[in-house]
Structure of ABC transporter ATP-binding protein:
Amino acid sequence: MFLETKNVTKKFGGLVAVNNVDFSIEKGKVNAIIGPNGAGKSTFFNLVSGTYPLSSGQVIYKGKDITRLPPNKIAKLGIARTFQTTNLFEKSTVLDNVIVGHRLRTKSNLIDAILRTKRFKREEQKCREKAMEVLEFVGLTGIADKMAANVTQEEKKRVAFALALATDPEIVFLDEPAAGINPDETEGLAELMRKMVENGITVCLIEHKMQMIMKLADHIMVLNYGEKIAEGTPEEIMNNQTVIEAYLGGDASA
Ligand SMILES: Nc1ncnc2c1ncn2[C@@H]1O[C@H](COP(=O)(O)OP(=O)(O)OP(=O)(O)O)[C@@H](O)[C@H]1O
């Protein structure tokens, strides 16, 4: 199995935000996590990416137990994530924002940077090339030199994708990538996620936009009050009585 969680649990004081969740992420597929507000979706992402320590359970990636690894080590293994709110350096260009992503793969230290050693210059060039490559992938070459403060919401979403891609990931966790953008832009981002998968990157996303998810995802897990209540193909999820009652209800066409 590519990435697997076993009995993953997170407690915040008396609140069990994620309760004994077993989930297998399929390689080369679009995997999705859905569920009502407060169901534990973002917390689940934070556990897998090492942002929060688990209360109990295990995260296994390509056969290796990564449960206790810090976020930077997890990222180095090829696991990238975006956040619900894209925090960019507003006073830097789009390019400079994305350059940071690939530094994860470089070895230069502070001394190299101060002395501007050959290694530092070579690695900075590599980071710049990588940033241009991923900006092209997400369709933002034309705004590479724009200040991040001056780009649209949809462009910010693409910059967040680019930042994740600049780390050379094998899997990307995307937290509500289509929140706050219009239907045409949502379709554009769905297209981009398909392109990632075509390029060998496994996608796992959280999303509230049901129509998009049902068209895009290969494999869906539904969380409700921190518990997995269903898992399957979009068709299986749409026809699952527990899901309909607990979550979709009258909101199935959202
Ligand atoms: N750092 C934290 N400290 C305490 N409680 C938290 C923390 N993070 C999340 N929670 C709680 O855990 C539960 C799950 O929250 P989480 O943000 O994971 O849900 P979600 O499914 O991502 O919701 P949404 O769709 O609204 O983003 C909620 O009750 C939330 O209030």
User: Anything to note?
Assistant: Residues 250-254 have pLDDT under 50 and may be disordered. Strands lie at 3-12, 15-25, 30-34, 56-61, 64-65, 79-81, 171-175, 202-206, 219-224, 227-232. The first strand starts at residue 3 and ends at 12.
